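Case study 2.
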Amino acid sequence: MNDRRKPPLSLRLAIDLIMLTLFFICLAFRLTEGTTHEWAGLAFLVTLAIHTWINRPWYGKLFKGAYGFQRVINTAVNLTLMLVMVLMAIGGIINSRFIFDFLNLEGGRLYHQLHALASYWGLVLVGIHAGLHWGMIRGVIYNGTGHRLTRSLRLALSPLVCLALTAFGVWASFDRDMGAKLFLGFSFDYWNPERPAALFYFCAFSLFWLYAFAAHWFMEGMRKVRWPSPA
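Prediction:
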């Protein structure tokens, strides 16, 4: 019954696309003003709340049914992602100097680190989350186009483009020093102002794509493994 009351899958994915776009804008803290960053962050939290509300039946099924390998991975990623988003929101609210300034919360180095750390782990986990649901996303694309992809869509989804974007994601991992960002190598992000802003967003998208690509093909490989049936 709960599933029947969900919005159409295409609308849910449209909300997720808006949420992802807002997330990329939030990551571009060094390119936007503080007010823009905070309003984009607040809008992101609103869309995240909508996403969570729409998918609330998933939480009710956590302790029901058997857990195979794929369900264990999905559950672990979803719960970890939710925890990271909560930490990101806490850090953002405490560090706020515009929208939540009336709360008179004292931020500081620790909360800036928490916010930055959660943000970049969020990028990794959002990509993995999307990769684990790539079959559903691809189904919406095919159904929405009547199983007849336009030339631009065929090009965008071609193996060559996908591999090129993955390779760029690997380069962006080193260029953006993701290892340091994910494991507290330094406290704050940096972007050379002489570089075009479009490159920042393309780097962020390619990193998202890299983790999605890796998660999708990891699960495809695991499906070929013969796992014992869950009790």
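Residues 35 and 98 are 6 Å apart (CA to CA).
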